[in-house]
Amino acid sequence: MDRFRMIFQYFQSNSESIMNGICGLLALASVKMYTCFDFSCPCLPHYNMAYGLGIMFVPPVALFLCGLILNRQSLVMLEEWRRPQGHRRKDLAVIRYMCSSITQRAMVAPVVWIIVTLLDGKCLMCAFSSSVDPEKFAGFANTSLVQVQQMLAKVPCKDDELMRNNTSRKAVSRYLRCWSQALGWSILLILIIAAFLARWLRPCFNQATLLQARHWSNYIDIEQKIFEETCCEHSRLFAHKCILHFFESMQQEIKLHSFSLPREGEGAEGKEDLLRGITDQDQVNKLLKMWYYEKPPLDVSQVAQR
Amino acid sequence: MDKFRMIFQFLQSNQESFMNGICGIMALASTQMYSAFDFNCPCLPHYNLAYGLGILLVPPFILFLLGFVLNNNISMLAEEWRRPQGQRGKDPSVLRYMFCSMAQRAMIAPAVWVSVTLLDGKCITCAFCTSVPVETLGNASHASLSQGEMKRVLARIPCKELYNGQELIASEVAVRYLRCISQALGWCFVLLMTTLAFLVRSLRPCFTQAAFLKSRYWSHYIDIERKLFDETCAEHARSFAKVCIQQFFEGMSMDLVAARCHLPRKAPADAGEAAEKLLGITDQGTMNMALKSWHRCKPPLHLHPPALPSGNGWAGEGQPPVHPPLPRREMVAHYSCV
User: Fold this and answer.
1) Which residue ranges traverse the bilayer (chain B) (predicted)?
2) What separation in angstroms does the CA of B195 have from each of B158, B200, B279?
3) Are A114 and A187 spatial neighbours (Cβ–Cβ below 8 Å)?
């Protein structure tokens, strides 16, 4: 447990670390989702392309939106963007910095999905099997156009009776997978080069502005957190006073209406009476009914002055 | 647990140790990636070479750049390189040290990938199956095939289910031959890398050890200084935010008291700690106004000037007259922490 607490504390140490952690978890989740998903190509002429490209592009959009939703900073940024100017002027560089940092983190999981899809090859094979040139492959060269289209559409389905031991099917499937993997590696290479150039070249332009934007975006985040903590603490105290006041007023009402002799030792209430004068079932029931039907007003100004 | 905490703290202690950890993880990740990756030779004449060499060389390049991208020192290096001189001189040997140390760590994962690929043999088999010496290993004269046709047949050697040239050359023979060459290359590569690493480590102390110690010290210093600066800024932002919010709540409750023309509350000498913590906001209307004002009109990023505390804890001259005694005392106490 100590181990987890330490790792948790490390990631909690600032909100950037939390967001990096969420980003990594989402990327792992997208890989897991892909391996669990049972890809099943329809093997029909026009459905293949729709299915293949759909599986390749629709989950990334969902993952991107998840990445934006799970990131607390996106709400902070929106609030900062939309707030009226008031006494504090708005700095567009800070908003731009926050926006770019949020977008970069949200893009990681979709990109991981697309690359895993391409390296696996099933999606592209399903989508583009009908677009292969049949002249390249011996088994498809001498058949009519319609028949060739249907056979090509069945290439992704290994278990189809027509295609089970067809060597041309295997050749086409290898060819498509090779292209898919090459595309996957190329995209990964381009993205890594872009990330490398961005990290290398960023300090060369406007480093001072960047430091300022980063500091103030951090500040806005911290300020929002502290404001929420202050409000929480305030509301806890407010509620405490409000409820105390309610119990006291109930206690007074019960004293007024009941004719029981004052119990011995009541005068010696030196220490705080935790039962607050409510000591039997009827009184408790009355208190609970009052709490539901007539909640006390949200005003402890009299109580606070005591 | 203590042991684990110590290891964790040691790895975190500076960027170099942290990078050693990342470097090890990336090396393991590269072997895992290779075994997870489904190698799929196209078995077509020109595609084989491109695919095989691509899988051999492109992922190591990606891993090398990833090693740089994950290293926070790269932006530190670029920053140190590009900063204006100001009052602190720049030492190119420090920059060189940082760059070399980053490059050395980034080379480990690619080297692991290349070694594993060569030792496994599939890439070289796929890339060079069309260059197998048929004359020595098979029957070149058996079937009269054109060059192009022979290349097409040979290209299918890695694909057992597609291969139809058993009479030309047995696929097992060709595959064994190519794998043998690939593994020999792999072991030579491993030997070369370890010899280079050994030479770099053992010869360096013989030359320029003093300069090396200096560069290493100052590069660690720059790293630590930057971390401390970031921590100090974060600490400052936290204190700034606390005081800003405190002043906001005080300002709110003062405004409301003034607006309602209530008699100013007499400062209760023994006001409980809870009353102070309520920050002067004691009913729903006031709280709603505070929340609305927080959104509509955020306070300026400008804290009121601190009051100089005198002997009895009360603020002296120069205090803005609008603040009544109780919050003033609070303000002084608060500032003493900032």
Assistant:
1) 21-37, 49-70, 184-203
2) 33, 9, 70
3) yes
| Distance in Å, alpha carbon of A162 to nearest chain B alpha carbon | 17
Residue-range domain boundaries for chain A: 1-208
The verdict on pTM exceeding 0.90 is no
Low-confidence stretches of chain B (pLDDT beneath 50): 263-264, 266-271, 307-338
Query: What average pLDDT does range A140-158 have in this prediction?
Result: 81
**DSSP letters spanning A224-267:** HHHHHHHHHHHHHHHHHHHHHHHHHHHHHHHHHH--PPPPTTST
CB contact under 8 A, A88 and B275: no
Q: Which residues of A touch B61 (CB under 8 A)?
A: 189
Say what the ipTM of the complex is.
0.75
- pLDDT 10s digits, B19-28: 888 888 999 9
Residue of B62, B287, B301 lying closest to A189 (CB–CB): B62
Report if residue B312 sits inside a domain.
Answer: no
Whether residues A196 and B75 touch (CB distance < 8 A) is answered with no
The number of folded domains in chain B is 1
- DSSP for B226-259 reads HHHHHHHHHHHHHHHHHHHHHHHHHHHHHHHHHH
Contact A175 B5 (CB under 8 A): no
Domain containing B194: what range? 1-208
**Is residue B258 in some structural domain?**
no
Residue A271 pLDDT level (bands cut at 50, 70, 90): very low
Residue reference for tokens 């559409």 = A153
Give the pLDDT band (50/70/90) at residue A5.
Answer: low
Q: Is residue B190 part of a domain?
A: yes
In a domain, B278, yes or no: no
Q: Do A195 and B279 touch (CB under 8 A)?
A: no
